[in-house]
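Dear support,

Our group has been running a series of protein-ligand predictions, and this particular one with iron/sulfur cluster is the one our PI (initials K.S.) wants archived with full inputs and outputs. We had some confusion internally about which version of the output was final, so please treat the block below as the authoritative record. The input we submitted was:
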Amino acid sequence: MCSGRVDLEFILRAFSNGVDGVFVGGCRLNECNYITHGNYHALNLVLLCKKIMAHIGLNPERLRIEFMSGGEGILFANKVDAFVQTVRAIGPLGQAEAIDKDELTAKLEAVTRLIPYIKIVKREKLASRLENEDAYDDFFTGEEVDRLFSEVVSYHIDPERCQACMICLRKCPVEAIAGGKKQVHVIDQDKCIKCGTCFDACPPRFGAVEKITGGPVPPPISEEERTISKQRSSGKQ
Ligand code: SF4
Ligand code: SF4
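Confirmed final output from the archive:
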């Protein structure tokens, strides 16, 4: 019902399913019936997604947002017609951009995995109200989005410091941490949404969770190496 419900995931899923274009229709700005003004959120999200599309080599014109009231049926039809013409002129998804199908699938999957992280990093901008249409193009810049992906943060538990207290495991919102009593905890990088909760939750005297920016994450230690046989001294070495 509300364009504020549109999520980055919906748009990327549509492209992953092979659609050539995505049209988001929202109520006119400043005419939202609710205090939430979800259409501003949808606008910000679309502007960000366009830059992400450019980052992975897709034509950002494949995505468009337009605002109209429920009584403007002709305007809606005209806007959709114009969009369809634009997308037809661009051509089939990926093919027109000379991106191999498997490569495009891999790129869309990689971005989709990072959606929670992207929303955390850009939460303030995504929540803002962009009143000036002239500012749309530069609200998110290409450099900013390139940096977003080159400086992706990862979290890793240092096996030498982990005390198996289980605090991080209990707080992780997506059950990405494996461990138990007397067992060094390990983060499953495929499940981790990079929320940083474990980093904040690990007691400072242990300081076992490391934040890695843009670099490779050390491979997880084997099951056999995870058992902590005797009490470790707390505190950083
Ligand atoms: S960063 Fe968040 S999702 Fe990832 S392991 Fe830590 S708590 Fe879980
Ligand atoms: S909170 Fe820190 S010390 Fe405790 S299990 Fe997690 S990583 Fe290990």
